[in-house]
From TrEMBL:
Annotated region described as Disordered, given as residue ranges: 1-20
Protein known as: Uncharacterized protein
Compositional bias (Polar residues): 1-18
Organism: Paramuricea clavata (Red gorgonian)
């Protein structure tokens, strides 16, 4: 009986010691964290704070060892600054890059935007449109910047329906070339960044105009003798004539090649 009592007392004693040890360690850890926190605040204060004039003894006693509000704000801002290498920041950059929606620029003047919207839905009366076209004639030294006609040797072999379709496309292209005349005139009258933007607009318009000419050729290809279909290739020059100025020479070369 005595042994059992001693054993129970031993167990109770061990349990009490364990509890005391846990409490002691918790107290030590709390004290260490407090010291580390104060030390970090002092280091941040030394790093961020501007040198302060020496304060008198009374000020030191009044203020104690607390960090200044400016330093606290600096620490808070530093800790809240997003990490540029974080996953969230990376996705913020990638999202616009791979977005399927149209990329847009800054909003323009509302009145100009309304004009654009109206012209998308409808067109100007022919008289008004002609007035605008006549303000921007072709520059004298841009002889090739015209709506090319279909070479006579090709035109006379086309069906009437094909001629009608191409004539309608030429009419549309006339507005395209007038647009380029206006851009060229604007380029001549401005400098700096505006001239750069207008030059870019001209380059894009010229590229579109060439594609337009190539599409006209492709629409005529089925009407040509198969042995002359190569005349529609992009390598054939475009001048004021849709198939270039030397089409007779091109035809002769094709004919000779087919005889081989």
């Amino acid at each position: 009986m005595t042994d059992q009592t001693n054993t129970e007392q031993s167990v109770d004693l061990t349990t009490d010691n364990t509890t005391d040890l846990k409490e002691s360690m918790a107290s030590m850890m709390s004290e260490m964290m407090s010291v580390m926190k104060d030390d970090m605040l002092r280091q941040f204060e030394e790093y961020f704070a501007a040198p302060e004039p020496e304060a008198n003894t009374g000020d030191v006693e009044a203020n104690g060892d607390q960090p200044s509000p400016d330093v606290s704000d600096a620490i808070e801002n530093y800790l809240q600054t997003p990490d540029p290498n974080s996953t969230s920041s990376t996705f913020d950059v990638l999202a616009p890059e791979f977005s399927t929606t149209d990329k847009t620029g800054p909003a323009i003047d509302d009145k100009l935007a309304n004009i654009i919207s109206d012209l998308v839905k409808d067109t100007l009366p022919k008289t008004k449109l002609d007035e605008v076209i006549n303000k921007y004639p072709r520059p004298e030294n841009c002889e090739s910047l015209v709506v090319p006609k279909v070479n006579k040797i090709v035109w006379q072999h086309l069906k009437q329906s094909v001629r009608t379709t191409d004539s309608a496309m030429q009419k549309c292209q006339k507005l395209f070339t007038s647009t380029m005349y206006a851009i060229i005139q604007a380029c001549e009258q401005v400098t700096g960044n505006v001239r750069t933007i207008l030059t870019h607009a001209l380059v894009l318009a010229m590229s579109g105009n060439r594609e337009f000419n190539l599409r006209r050729r492709e629409l005529l290809r089925p009407s040509l003798n198969s042995q002359y279909a190569t005349l529609c290739n992009p390598s054939t020059p475009i001048t004021s004539e849709l198939f270039g100025d030397d089409i007779s020479k091109e035809i002769d070369q094709v004919a000779k090649a087919n005889q081989l």
